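Why do we bother with holo predictions? Because pocket geometry can differ from the apo form. Keep that in mind while you read this record for flavin-adenine dinucleotide.
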Amino acid sequence: MDVVIVGAGVIGLTIAWRSAARGLNVTIVDRHPASEASHVAAGMLAPVGELAYGEERLLRLGIDSRDRYPAFVAELEELTGHDTGYRDDGTVQVAFDTDDLAFLDDLRRFQETLGLPATALSGRECRRLEPMLAPSVRGGLLAERDGSIDPRRLTGALLSAVERSGVTLVRQNVTRVLVEGDRAVGVRTEAGEDLRADQIVLATGAWTHRLEGLPRDVVPVIRPVKGQVVRLRTRVPFLTRTTRGVVRGSSIYLVPRSDGEVVVGATQEEMGYDTTVTAGGLWELLRDARELIPGITELEFVEVSAGLRPGSPDNAPLLGPAALSGLSLATGHFRNGVLLTPVTGDVMAEALITGRLPDVARAFSPERFAEEISA
Ligand SMILES: Cc1cc2nc3c(=O)[nH]c(=O)nc-3n(C[C@H](O)[C@H](O)[C@H](O)COP(=O)(O)OP(=O)(O)OC[C@H]3O[C@@H](n4cnc5c(N)ncnc54)[C@H](O)[C@@H]3O)c2cc1C
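The structure, written out:
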């Protein structure tokens, strides 16, 4: 079977690799592979920390995907020889005042009702784990099974994996989806070339609903949610695990990497497709991060960047066959696309081959928006 995947972020690249590994003939099309949200992401693999109450089904999908990570990374690193920067050393979430402590206590109980281990820590225990934490930290919660990965190393490895797996990479933008009768049959590139295939997959992140040629009731609006992050560098041991807290009502996190990089994130702004890095965004991130970890002001400044999280109407991904035959969607991963990469790759490859979405992803079928998008 021939498959054309549009979009080569973490999601499109992983679907390409997994599908080719299962014998499909895959072409992936993107003028700038791995340059958008996947290039900016911090790479936390934290199913609980990034979720809101009421998102239990998404939490289950996140846990499933996090649990696939060790085998996924082992296979990818063995195939390509690339180091992805994967770590499984947990997340510590800290509290500064009584309100924060009450929030963490609620979170711990919520996690326990879901059967997830979470360890409550005193302020002193938090600082024993992470000595750079501010002395004003009152307590915390340790999620031992959370992890992180370097998304730039991950996409580097995935690009190498698709190349080794016989996937054709076309460095072009797609200008329209080609539809004949009631079926998607291919895509047209900006060079005017038509790429025809049995199945078309849109993995185009925050740009998915903007593709021309799609009937109007097939893709809901995927809103771009801007996030700015700062990259710093340390030459001395600094943090041993992802550390997060709430400062002045906004959530702040620091993700350390084994090569000395420390990612500080992230703003959350609904500004359309604007990716301007602002002085205010940078200032707020550094100000809040300094409250959590005063020593960050000593670190080397490397970069500040902004990306667009693809947000679906219910903030959960759309996975699997769309309401137009021949077309599948893998978009709307919002704040969790890196976390959800392994499960997305596996369920999409399965759905392309069998026509059926595995149970774990059934609740995320695009069908759930059928009424909303045809209204
Ligand atoms: C600041 C920030 C921090 C984040 N932190 C985390 C985190 O810690 N953990 C986590 O799990 N997630 C995180 N995310 C979310 C994560 O980055 C996204 O959910 C994920 O990258 C989505 O991947 P994607 O491949 O769908 O989209 P993208 O990476 O945006 O890729 C979409 C691709 O489609 C291509 N494309 C679009 N239109 C066309 C077209 N017409 N023709 C051809 N190609 C096209 C683009 O060029 C792009 O390469 C973060 C995001 C941001 C912005």
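The mean pLDDT is 94.
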